[in-house]
Fold this sequence. Notes:
The chain is α+β, with helices and mostly antiparallel strands. Helices cover 22% and strands 20% of the residues. Strands 1, 2, 3, 4, 5 and 6 form a six-stranded antiparallel sheet that branches. Helix 1 packs across helix 2. The protein is globular.
Amino acid sequence: MVEAGMETSQSNDPCTSGTSVVPGVSPSPGVSPTAGGAACDLVTVPARQGLEAVDILRRGVGETVGPVLHDGGCDTLGFLVPAGTAACWDVPGSICTETNGQGLRLDPAPPVEGSDWLLPPGEAHLATDPVVLRRALGEAARLIEAADSRR
């Protein structure tokens, strides 16, 4: 879950220093998809923040979202982003896993037992723009923090 007071990076530069690893938030095991032969990295976030981000992305004008994987066992969402994103991902509360083009091909079948596609390949763009995703995750964290502070 997103902790109260936690903020995501507001940088518009997709390559800023550091990679964040948060205990309890792990990438879905065995997920290393490729899109049409091109490698994709996987940004994994807590499901609550990820669902908010998907809503934000889908409401945005001209903003697109790639395939999104829901891992029910880990209560996370995974966003496919262009290869190379992991090298410079710095958003607190998330993990970006480099896949190096290894593993599964994108297909509508869930790649990991206990997971399912929220936005399956073929119904979404190839990958989510990491700058746009960073912005949506930041907005989602602020919305969650505001909602939680009203309780």
